[in-house]
Amino acid sequence: MRRTRLGLLSLLALLTGAPSAAWAQAPAALKNQAKAAAAKAQARTAGAPQAQEVSDVLKAPRPKGGEYFGLYLMDKKVGWFFTDLTALPGNKVQSINELIFKAQVGTRVSERVHREVRVYEAKPGGKLLSFTVTQKGDGGDNELVGTVTGDALRVVRKRPGQPDEVLKPLPLPKETVEDADQARVALLRGQKVEGVALDGTDLEGYRTVTTVEAPEEQVLGGVKVKLSRVSTLSDKEKVPVAAFLTTDGKMVRVDFGQTMQARAESESVAKRLDLVEVFGLTRVVLPQPLPAKAREVPGQVKLVMKNLPEKFQQDTYRQKYKRLPDGRVEVTLMAAPPSPKGRLPRPVADPDKGENLKSTLAVEADAPAIKAQAKSIIREEKDAYTAARMLSAWVYSNLQKDYGASADRATDVLRQKKGDCTEHSLLTVAMLRASGIPARRVDGVIYMVNSDGVPALYWHEWVEAYVGEWTQLDPTFNQPVADATHFYVGYEGNAEITPLIGSLQVTDVK
To answer: Which class for 150: exposed (0-12), middle (13-18), buried (19 or more C-beta within 10 A)?
Structure first.
């Protein structure tokens, strides 16, 4: 079953790129304070014409020593977050962001540490000069050290017990120092801020926009105060993130949809965690068990759902949607093997212009070890679907089912040969792409009845491959055709599904 990261690292990118967010319609007092701060900064440099002008990111008010937040999922504490931005000698700026996630996943405790340190030029529009991204715990231990040299970004990947790996040079990042805290920059300027954030997990740049919204009154410490509100939207996550700040620039809350929230807390309180069992917390309980036909191939089942946003109601070859008069939606889930007439030989052209054949930081399709393993499994098999089934079956048979031994890179999965549904899917997709078969990881829910006897849908990840037409396989459960108990809602890394957690309901089974 899916390790319930719930887009935490994707959402971290929003906090990292914009640790706060909100000002176009900020209160006059706050704007005046910002202007005064800017005037003081200008006065300090007026007598020194040789001094470099500094970015607005350093002029905006913020708490000294950084900020701590407790991270809550459906009002249960699952981690904490720290963020800080400071000036460095030599006209530079340093941004620090650290996320710790800890929860019980099944019978195991899942703990993840993600820390990013970035250094920029301090001048307006200052370039990103270097970064260090450190990941520990769930997902594996590794470190990415990036440095801008000349006309390229050089990145070294470090892992315990392995030689350092120099990645292929990347284009110069478009991220600037203002993108380190778009929220406060937007508030200082009183207008929308647009930029690009370099994601610390896939090293891709994503457009990020922060807008100022109407202020809101909230009760803090028993006192009603007016808070500025900003909203940040990234092209990667596509989930609006609302942040609320006081007039002195302190961020008090960040909302990620309706189910996840970061709350400002002291360091000692933020680091005091509950041990939350996320499987039971995030599952979708069914009113009755699914019929046996749902597990047949071909097979189908119908679910009547509540609180399923319209944007998720897109008909596919596996899912059909029918809107009911009372606002609910009837979803028909279907499973069938690909048509023999439509199947193609390898290599197969990607209908998405190569996106599903790419080798990435996680899906290392070009890695020699991945290529060699895939080749040894399928040998000279030409039929794409037959090869896909062989790869999926090998992953099922050779990976130990272990929810406490996860990895974020396909080569790490291949080396350790254990993990949960995300590791099974990651390695399968990497080997499919290495074999010339377009593939991607699918996010959604799958039907299960756990030890408590409650029929429910649990968050899960499986695989979709293009073999002349799209087809879904589940290497975790050894299904060459993912059966109709699988309900797809998005693709790996798509944080748009996060608001569904805790809100999606199934009211009837047919």
So the answer is: exposed
Q: Which residues of 267-288 are buried (b: 16+ CB within 10 A; e: fewer)?
A: eeebeebeebebbebbbbebee
pTM over 0.90: no
- Find the angle CA(7)-CA(462)-CA(403) to the nearest 5 degrees: 70
How far apart, in whole angstroms, are the C-alpha atoms of residue 9 and residue 408? 12
In angstroms, rounded to a whole number, what is the distance separating the alpha carbons of residues 313 and 330? Answer: 10
Encode pLDDT of 70-118 as tens digits.
999 888 899 999 999 999 999 999 999 999 998 876 667 788 899 999 9
267: enclosing H helix or E strand: helix 267-270
Q: Where are the beta strands (DSSP E) in 362-474?
A: 400-401, 418-419, 439-449, 455-466, 470-473
The one-letter amino acid code at 134 reads T
Distance CA 491, CA 473 (A): 14
Peptide bond into 298 cis (omega under 30): yes
Report the DSSP pairing between strands 152-158 and 165-166: antiparallel
Count Cα neighbours of 228 within 13 Å in the Cβ-side half-sphere.
30
124/180 Cα distance (integer angstroms): 12
